[in-house]
């Protein structure tokens, strides 16, 4: 990213503009307690993001409140949510970007980062909607949380009564609290972000990598879009020509449309350098292997994404060795240690 | 050629600007309901369907078609009767984006017989992060490494090159490449409070007149390629009709 003077000036203007827009929109969000409840007041919160981020996706009936996000955080770390001693954080570990090197039935554990900007979830795009929707799935189906256990816990039953004004805790209540916590999990202080804000200067290699990433040479940005680093869309990137495992069929397993064979939701690249397994089935174990795939490993299948078929890419990117290193150097600038060490996202118990 | 186009755009706008002052003050209201459709020679464009033929004889299918319309001008007998500068994002395959309204202010009489607009953004708006921060606008971003601003249009799909299957990504952006569009229409502005404007884009117009655009000989990737973007801009000026 070249930060010329005009760029900085326009960015500054844009930031002011976005502040104005965001300010006026967010003011509308009100989580004032209902009149009949005078004992608890929820503290309205805002999702703090760098100003060049888009507006988070937030349903009207779950506007952010500090207490509810905090309750979500307790649930996220509570092993009693599952029936086998696992908590969400057991697989989604903060220090490595809320993922884990272990796999679940051959599937890589997706990281939790900036999910407030997702409308499509899971590698195969099988869940769509809001964070509230996917969290409902997590507690109701994936964990099959024993609601009785939660309802008879005096702390939870008191907190949900206070914040949700309910005497019976349902999956929806759990999901709403988890969704609020997840929405606060914003990563926006990576070296890349700091460079956008003019606070650090990227090294020549990192800059060259960004140039590859954000121009037609590497053409990564059409799917890993700035600044969210995923376009929430399903793509076949040519990983397979034969779909050996059921899971390799990706989005096809959701739609049963042959055009969707091998399509996966673009993964978020924030904190990608902290991961040790890449792609839906973890077939690659280093960023070098991933870049080599884009360089020369792609299979030409009929529904290969048009972007992958462009002339400069038709036989892979054919990068020089140093260009591969530059791309990797750029990917490493997406690591945000303020996120992986933020006490606000850690185990509260 | 590039300069000519630019001069033309400037002329259109300065023209518009003078006309605005001479328009009598308007007093009543209502709205124009615009519905945008996408066709290939009269047949509705379906996603993922490799069945269309362009002027170069190539078979193609469209999987993504997203763009901005802006700077609407409505004319009656050559006289500007209404101006609207809002920016509309259209995704050909997401119905909710294909219909929008343009509010009318004032007592407008007579028939509106032509409409003009830009496909893309004017230079004031085409600045990175200037549009409202929605996910859609964010995905349309044109990287600063290539001049910044937004994609004006992304049209992507597959095409057949002999027996081989290829991809194309016709992307246009950057200042000077917003496409001035215009077409005849017929709306009675006098009585009804709601006026309907059915716009439709014939995708094949991108590939012909004044010059045939061939995915194989011209190129299947236009992003930041000034020659290809210019050729597409010139071809597309008559892509819309209002019938």
Describe this structure in words.
The complex is a heterodimer of chains A (349) and B (243). Chain A has two domains: 53-186 and 340-345, Cytochrome Bc1 Complex, Chain D, domain 2; 191-333, Orthogonal Bundle (Cytochrome Bc1 Complex, Chain D, domain 2), CATH 1.10.760.10. With 349 residues, chain A is mainly alpha-helical. In chain A, a hairpin with a 5-residue loop joins strand 3 and strand 4 (127-128). In chain A, the strands form three sheets. In chain A, strands 1-2 form a two-stranded antiparallel sheet. Chain A is built from 13 helices and six strands. Chain A has helices at residues 5-27, 66-76, 88-91, 131-142, 147-151, 154-164, 171-184, 191-196, 204-213, 252-255, 287-297, 321-332, 337-340, and strands at 103-104, 107-108, 120-121, 127-128, 234-235, 264-265. Chain B has 243 residues and is α+β, with helices and mostly antiparallel strands. Chain B has one domain (2-17, 29-242). In chain B, 15% of the residues lie in helices and 42% in strands. In chain B, strands 3, 4, 5, 6, 8, 9, 10 and 11 form an eight-stranded antiparallel beta sheet that branches. Residues 1-28 of chain B have low confidence and may be disordered. Classes of the chains: A mainly alpha (349), B alpha+beta (243).
